[in-house]
Amino acid sequence: MAIEHDFFGLLESGPDGSIFWSETVELGDQSVTIDLTAPDQNDVSMAALDVAAAMINALDGIDALAREAMLSEVDDRASEVTEFILQQQDQLGEQLQELLVDHSGDIDVDVIRSLQLMSMTILADEHGRSDPFAVLEYALDPDATDDVLLVNLTSDAQVQSVTSAD
To answer: Rounded to whole angstroms, how far apart are CA atoms 123 and 131?
Structure first.
C-alpha cells in the first residue's frame, strides 16, 4: 500500500506497514536531514502530512522558535540546556571558542546561536497526540553525535520540551 501526498510524493509502506521518507534541505549554510517516519501507515492522516510539509517549509521559523525555547531555559541552573552548555565548556575548554560563530560575551547565548541543526525527525503517527510530533537535533560539533540537544515539538509547532540525548 502507499499514500500519495503533494509534498512528499508517493510514500510506499514497507513489508511491516511502516513508512519512511528522507530528504536533505538547506537552512542557511547548513544541510539538515529531514526524516518522516511512522510504524504503521494506517496511523498517518493527510492532515499529519500537511502539517509535516508546513513544518519543513517553515524550518527557518521552527529553528528560531526552538532556539528561543533553549534560551528561555538558561536561567534555570538545573535545566538540560544549562547542563549541556556546562558539559560543552568542560569537555572542550579553550576549543569551545573556535566552535562559536558569535562572541557576544554571554557564553550561554553564544553556544545556543552556534548550535547546528543536524536533523528534524517527524513522527507522522503522533499528529494531535501527547508524544512529540517532530524532534529537532542540535549539536555544537557535528562530529560529536552523542553531545546533542533535542527539541520536541507538538503537531501545532509548539515546543514541548528540550532534552539532551543522554
So the answer is: 9
